[in-house]
Amino acid sequence: MTSGGDSPGMNAAIRAVVRTAIFCGLDVYGIYRGYEGLIDNHIEQMYSHSVSNIIQRGGTILKTARSKRFMEYQGRLQAFNNLKEHNIDALVAIGGNGTFTGASVFNKEFDFPIIGLPGTIDNDLFGTDSTIGYDTAINTVVEAADKIRDTATSHERLFFLEVMGRDAGFIALRSGIACGAEFILVPETTTYIDNLARLLRHDWRKNKTSGIVIVAEGDDMGGAYEVAKKVKEKIPEIDTRVTILGHIQRGGSPSAYDRVLASSLGFLAVKGLLDGHRDSMAGIIDKVVTFTPFEKAIKHTKDINKEMLEMSRILAL
Ligand code: F6P
User: Per residue in 103-121, pLDDT tens?
Assistant: First the structure.
């Protein structure tokens, strides 16, 4: 089952789960539209050929949804009954925070074994260095930022480029470093407008001919439009523009890195279930396979690297 916001590489993970399970002599079912489909009994058996030719495709062949009904006991009970009807006795849930919050409650209520795979572009899960889709999303942002840099340089403009990340600045930080952004604004740190305007003005006086400020959508000062407006009030002489990248970051063919990560984690999820893991997320930390209990994966915050944030500013001077 895939659930929550989709991410590139989910299909590669589905493929790995299906084929590993079949290799291990298990029957495999696909649950469509996340917890919504589980409640509506949208469940179909999958075979090796069901996952042919999908490793390179973005999105998820199983579809996905955010489910309000699964937050209610009645919805979860219906989901449990549907699983029993199909003789399904373990679940692999590919998703992010919301998915694992639901999985944790469901596991406790019905003592039902679940392994989670970290599938989100946000990379905001504790218990894995990288989530499935994060690398691809960063590459999408960098490709867009490079194009923006071209036009920014031609017109001598300052661009505010908004990237995804409601609660976390991982996409902003890594893509910002990779595209040489002048500033990176993330939810994990406070943005001081006076400071930002002072440094940007300084950049311009030093004859910078373009600028890119990467703004994570969850920054405390607001999105890119808000930040741009405030900066423009302080330095009206700079010509500014705003670009919101939006859902383009969630699509596209997964990078080689994400395909390998998703394949490895899908394989490990099945092995983990057979080894008796029942309520944890499979991840890879420092090249070591790790199973982190759902509660920890959701509640422990993965810290953003503040030194890298500082470094990005020095490198943009
Ligand atoms: O959780 C992944 C994510 O892409 C966030 O970065 C973003 O804020 C959110 O999903 C958008 O969700 P939706 O597609 O439901 O609008």
Answer: 999 999 999 999 999 999 9
The Cα-based distances of 149 to 24, 84, 154, 180 in angstroms read 50, 55, 9, 10
Largest CA distance in the chain: 70
Q: Does residue 121 have its Cβ closer than 6 Å to ligand 1?
A: yes
Q: How many angstroms separate the CA atoms of 126 and 283, rounded?
A: 9
What residue spans in the chain does CATH classification 3.40.50.450 cover? Answer: 10-133+254-299
Q: Which CATH homologous superfamily contains domain 138-250?
A: Phosphofructokinase domain (3.40.50.460)
Using a 6 Å cutoff on CB, does residue 166 contact ligand 1?
Answer: yes
**Residues with catalytic roles:** 122
Give the residue-averaged pLDDT of 89-99.
97
* Nearest CA owner, ligand 1 atom 8: 166
Strands 28-31 and 43-46: antiparallel
Sheet holding 240-244, edge to edge: 183-185, 211-216, 158-163, 240-244
Dump pLDDT digits (tens) for 232-289.
999 999 999 999 999 999 999 999 999 999 999 999 999 999 999 999 999 999 999 9
What one-character DSSP code corresponds to residue 42?
A: -
CATH number 3.40.50.450 given to 10-133+254-299: yes
Q: Which two tokens stand for residue 87?
A: 């003789």
pTM: 0.97
Beta strand pairing status for 279-285 and 114-118? parallel
Pocket test for ligand 1, best of 36, 122, 245 (most atoms within 8 A of CB): 122
Atom of ligand 1 nearest to the CA of 164: 6
Ligand 1 pocket member 96 (CB < 6 A) = yes
